[in-house]
Amino acid sequence: MAALFKSEAGKKEILGLYDQKLAALHIAHESVYVDTSFGQTHLIRTGDPHHPPLILVHGSNGCAPIALECYPNLSTRYQVFAVDVLAQPNRSAQTRLDMKGPDYGQWMHELMVALDLHEVVLAGFSFGGLIILKTLVHHGGRVKAAFLASPAYLVNGNPLRALWHIFIPMRRYMRTQRVKYVEQFLAALFTDRDAFAVQFLALVFLHFKMDFNPLPVLTAAEAQKINTPISLLAAKNDLLFPGAKMLKRARKLLPSLENTLLLETSKHVQNQAGNRVFENLILGRSTAS
Predict the structure, then answer these.
(1) Of 44, 86, 124, 268, which has the maximum CB count within 10 A?
(2) Residue boundaries of the structural domains of the chain
(3) Residue 209 buriedness (CB in 10 A; 0-12 / 13-18 / 19+)
């Protein structure tokens, strides 16, 4: 297993910000480590253990504390397991899984089995959506419902626009370490500026080996294997996964799609208002169409 942190010093800096974010949440929580065939996985467990289980899955270059910050009220109705996704800048193993095969679904299934979870709600953002859809295709038996916010694996955006607005600023920052390029990257993807994201991603871009492989998309044959109820939130101004395009394909492809919402003014990463819409959808407080 190749190390994805480029140095111990860089890893220490990134995990220092991880701990800082978690402490700032001021929540009662427990760290849980689960051994899987793909490597040890870290989760943050919070909420009443008598409540139904919800596994929260963050996006690329993210971590569990960021996901918990986005949706702080889920723990009022669920026992939340915020997972540190493998091969991301966090506390889980640095095993990079095959995005084209069933590995991510198998990994999530192993987590649910090890934690003895049944009737699980899965909720995820961006790359977390790919993981959830892989789970529904290959191992959906333990999943009660799925909630996806701007998920990967349904559609992809224009690669030239992504190159210009995302990858070129990222590379320029990695070469020059001028923070203005991190700000350019964030401006293309984030609805509102996020000061912590500037700090965190600046370190990730320098000290972590990111995965630049192209993202696959769900096939019609795979979609037909899904029977778990799905609720989908998309963003109209999403550069990576355009919202209108996503909803059109999802409505055609997913037989168990129950709820859809399009945020008219949102980019890929929702702001606080967008996060509340997604949170309320999960909690059953939002009107969907």
Answers:
(1) 124
(2) 26-158+213-283
(3) middle
- Print pLDDT tens along the chain (289 aa): 469 999 999 999 999 999 999 999 999 999 999 999 999 999 999 999 999 999 999 999 999 999 999 999 999 999 999 999 999 999 999 999 999 999 999 999 999 999 999 999 999 999 999 999 999 999 999 999 999 999 999 999 999 999 999 999 999 999 999 999 999 999 999 999 999 999 999 999 999 999 999 999 999 999 999 999 999 999 999 999 999 999 999 999 999 999 999 999 999 999 999 999 999 999 996 444 4
Residue matched to tokens 């800048």:
89
Distance CA 155, CA 286 (A): 25
What CATH code would you report for 26-158+213-283?
3.40.50.1820
Distance CA 260, CA 224 (A): 18
Tokens of 211: 């995965």
Round to whole Å and give the CA distance between 192 and 63: 19
Q: Please give the Cα distance from 277 to 108 (Å, whole number).
A: 25
Task: Give the C-alpha separation, 275 to 256, whole Å.
Answer: 23
Please give the C-alpha separations between residue 79 and each of 125, 231, 260, in angstroms, as whole numbers. Answer: 18, 20, 25
Buried b (16+ CB within 10 A) or exposed e, 252-268: ebbeebebbbbbeebbb
Residue 102, judged by CB atoms within 10 A of its CB (0-12, 13-18, 19+), counts as middle
- The alpha carbons of the chain give a radius of gyration, in whole angstroms, of 18
**pTM score, two decimals?**
0.97
Torsion of CA 242, 243, 248, 253, to 10 degrees: 80
Strand 257-263 relative to strand 53-57, pairing: unpaired
Q: In 10 A of CB 11, how many CB atoms? A: 18
Element (H, E) at 234: strand 230-235
